[in-house]
Amino acid sequence: MAVNGAAMCVQSVIHSRGRREYSMARISVDATKCAYLGVCESLAAKYFQLDDRGELVLPAGYEVDSADLDDVREAVLGCPTEALSLDEGQA
């Protein structure tokens, strides 16, 4: 999915004490701020990629595993233009 200013919503399932808890993590990209430098890709390539034209792509259908959430957070915090945000609401 190429970035067009819309947010991509991803879910993660966290197993806790034999029960499932669902949390939502919403990755938002402000395409007007993105400089396509690839910092996010270097920190969380599973979720952020630059295509052959140098445009940011968010691979569709990926769920953020609890093990990957720290990497996505680092990518959001590492964005030099603050084009990325992550909303971690509870479902």
Features:
two-stranded antiparallel sheet; alpha+beta; 2 helices; single chain; Alpha-Beta Plaits; 91 residues; 31% strand; 16% helix; 3-stranded antiparallel sheet
Describe what you observe in this structure.
There is one protein chain. The chain has helices at residues 39-43, 69-78, and strands spanning 8-16, 19-29, 49-50, 56-57, 84-87. The protein is α+β, with helices and mostly antiparallel strands and 91 residues long. The radius of gyration is 13 Å and the shape is globular. The model is unreliable at 4-20 (pLDDT under 50). It contains two helices and five strands.
Shape: globular
What structural category characterises the helix and strand content? Answer: alpha+beta
Distance between the termini: 24 Å
At the first level of CATH, the class is: Alpha Beta
Regarding quaternary structure, what we see is single chain
The total domain count is 1
The largest sheet is:
3 strands, antiparallel
- Arithmetic mean pLDDT: 75
Which percent range describes the beta-strand content?
25-35%
Question: How large is the radius of gyration?
Answer: 13 Å
The DSSP helix count reads: 2
Helix fraction bin: 10-25%
Give the low-confidence spans: 4-20
Order of helices and strands: EEHEEHE
Give me the count of strands.
Answer: 5
CATH architecture: 2-Layer Sandwich
- The strand order across the widest sheet is 1-2-5
CATH fold-type name:
Alpha-Beta Plaits
